[in-house]
Design brief:
By secondary structure, the chain is α/β, with parallel strands linked by helices. It has one domain: Rossmann fold. It contains ten helices and ten strands. It is globular and about 40 Å long. The structure holds NADP nicotinamide-adenine-dinucleotide phosphate.
Amino acid sequence: MTTYDIAVVGGTGPQGRGLAYRWARHGHRVVLGSRSPERAEATAAEIRERVPDASVGAAGNAEAVAGADVVVLAVPYDGHDELVSSLAGELAGKVVVSCVNPLGFDGLGPYGLDVPGGSAAEEAQALVPDARVVGAFHHVSAVTLWGDRDRLDDEDVLVCGDDEDAKRVAVELARAVTSRDGVDAGRLRIARQLETWTAVLISVNKRYRTRSGIAISGLSR
Ligand SMILES: NC(=O)c1ccc[n+]([C@@H]2O[C@H](COP(=O)([O-])OP(=O)(O)OC[C@H]3O[C@@H](n4cnc5c(N)ncnc54)[C@H](OP(=O)(O)O)[C@@H]3O)[C@@H](O)[C@H]2O)c1
């Protein structure tokens, strides 16, 4: 297995923490990024408490990104473009995995936002043309990620992107989460569907009081 140095931008939030925990638990080296290195360190300590042998560091976002092979964007859509622009120099040339879901909520429930660049992932790519952006991990719940199961082997991670090598990295990183390769879902513009699809899962969760995920049928494993 290839192991990666992964920076998780927004690593103090539930999704970043959950993904970092999964990767640390399965042999990758992770640095949590935050606007506050102290907050990042507190979250890193939570992960190390659960996985004492893991390599989990903490830093400000820019420092975390600068030292990584792979950068994961795990921040809210609100403020996403400003953050990505502020990290453009550090993100250039890197594999950048976005799990950002631009969603709105009103009295009728969750819905996918229409965003100017088509999707958060495409906006990140447009803001940093030299980065190799992929979309992935939109549909795994933060609570499930932080749970005790060794691997979430009833779920799939859908991956989209325009750079085949970058997509391959995300496909591999999915193994630490689900036990199997991520599923190549197509070009980066497919992020428009992947990101907004999360509104469907949240609706199902509310109706059935569960934490739903996705699994793709018809593939030979
Ligand atoms: N929660 C889930 O179950 C889930 C599942 C799949 C995908 N996602 C997606 O993953 C992303 C993160 O989700 P989350 O629930 O972990 O979000 P969150 O808790 O709202 O935010 C994550 C972290 O982002 C940083 N952040 C917040 N606002 C920021 C801003 N304006 N600029 C820069 N950094 C900011 C904060 O870290 P610091 O204050 O420490 O910098 C925060 O702890 C979202 O796009 C979400 O749609 C979430």
